[in-house]
Each structure stands twice: as C-alpha cells, then as structure tokens.
Amino acid sequence: MPRRKKKLPEKVKVIFRSTEGVGGKDDIFIGLNGQSFLIKRDEPVEVPRALLNVIDDAIMTIYEQTESGLSKPRDIPRFPYEIVPEEVPEEEEEPKKATEVK
Fold first, then answer.
1. Which of 13, 20, 29, 90 has the most Cβ atoms closer than 10 angstroms to its Cβ?
2. pTM for the model
3. What is the pLDDT of residue 41?
C-alpha cells in the first residue's frame, strides 16, 4: 500500500505590526492544533494560512469617549497584520519563518 504524503498547510507571508500598549512590541505567541508559533513583529514572516483564522478571532475592546461624555466600545484586532504580495524582487532575501516552539 503506497504511503500518503502529508499535505502541508498553505503558507502566507505577512507582517505583524507593532501596537501601542502593554506587549505591543513583543513577539506574538500563538498556538494552532498543538503547534506553537513565536512570530516577530514588523518583519515579513511565513505562517500557515489557518493561523490567520486564529489571529483574526483575537480581538480586544477599547472604549472611546463620545462628545456627550459616554463611553462607546469598539472592537479592534489584537494583532494587526498585512499580507505581503507574492511578487518579490529577486534581490530580496527569503522571508523569515515563524519559529515553532515545542
């Protein structure tokens, strides 16, 4: 019986931006299906596309004061990122990969 090749997760290149507040400049520690990832901010990194689903669900609520003085809640992404276009000039280095933590 032939062995089945394990399908590797699709990777996507992203940049996680630093944010204000506590921990906003620290590396990002995220887990997905028993795997842990330590992701650098402000650098292009390759991560499994499924990891972005986890990150998209990580939101935090901030409260802004309205003109009438009341507090209004607003949900914002906990880990803002941008997807890097796939077209890369040949002179550029390979993107760094997120470090898998065991």
1. 13
2. 0.66
3. 93
